Amino acid sequence: MDTHLRLRPARAFSGGEEPAYPFEWPTWAVAVAVYGGWLALVWHAASLPWSVVLPAGAWLTAWHGSLQHEAIHGHPTRSARLNAALAWLPIGLWMPFSIYRRTHLRHHAAAHLTDPLADPESFYVLPEEWRRMGRVRRAAHVVNHTLAGRLVLGPALMAGRFWLDEARRLSRGDLTNGRVWSSHAAGVAAVLWYSAFVCALPVWDYVVLFAYPGLSLTLLRSFAEHEPSSSECRRTAIVAGGPFSRLLYLNNNLHAVHHAFPALPWYALPRAWRTAGRNAFFGPDDPPRHRSFASIAARYLFRLRDHPVHPAGCESRSFE
Question: What angle (nearest 5°) sits at the alpha carbon of residue 261, between those of residues 82 and 20?
Answer without folding.
Answer: 60
